[in-house]
Amino acid sequence: MVTNVTSFGRSGLSDWLVQRVSAVVLAAYTIFIVVYLLCNSDLTHAQWLALNQHIAMKMFSLAAVLSVAAHAWIGLWSVLTDYVTVRLMGPKATPLRIVLQLGMITVTLAYVVWAIDILWGI
Fold first, then answer.
1. pLDDT by residue (tens digit) across 67-79?
2. CA distances from 15 to 22, 27, 77 (A)
3. What does the alpha-carbon distance between residue 100 and residue 94 come to, in Å, rounded to a whole number?
4. Other Cβ atoms within 10 Å of 118 Cβ, number
5. Domain-wise residue ranges, the chain
6. What is residue 8's predicted lDDT score, i.e. its pLDDT?
7. Running DSSP on this structure, what letter comes out for residue 18?
8. Cβ contact 34:70 at 8 Å
9. Are 85 and 93 contacting, i.e. CB atoms less than 8 angstroms apart?
10. What is the pLDDT of residues 70-106, one digit of tens each?
């Protein structure tokens, strides 16, 4: 059973919805990039730069980065709450799961901040 300490007050329905929406955003982003590359076989650095400097592309890329972060967080949270349990690992499972989740949050936030810095140059 997942305790309130590690569920952070989320529900299964919200997790399911975030997973599906983030998957759609990532699929759309991947399809767009693949089609763009296929349609521009003689792509130059200037064209690639122009694409990625456009505000719409920056917003789409940011949505993709945030979708990766949300998708990864929910997926890894699910794995940890399924496998790092008191039943499987004993009484130290809950503190270990909390430490692992805090580590995941730290790494995910670092990657998101890094991606925002790359996208927006802040």
1. 999 999 999 998 9
2. 10, 18, 10
3. 10
4. 12
5. 11-120
6. 54
7. H
8. no
9. yes
10. 999 999 998 998 898 888 888 898 999 999 999 999 9
The C-alpha angle with vertex 32 and arms to 31 and 38, in degrees rounded to 5, equals 85
User: Is residue 93 left, alpha or beta, with left meaning phi > 0 and alpha meaning psi from -120 to 50?
Assistant: alpha
Cα 118 to its chain centre, rounded Å, is: 16
Task: Give per-residue pLDDT as tens, 4-57.
Answer: 555 556 678 888 999 999 999 999 999 999 999 999 999 999 999 999 999 999
Which residue has tokens 């917003």? 59
Fold of 11-120: 3 helical TM bundles of succinate and fumarate reductases (1.20.1300)
3-state helix, strand, coil in the chain (%, to 5): 85, 0, 15
Separation of alpha carbons 90 and 102, rounded Å = 20
Determine contact, residues 116/62, Cβ cutoff 8 Å.
yes
Cα torsion 36, 40, 43, 46 to 10°: value is: -70
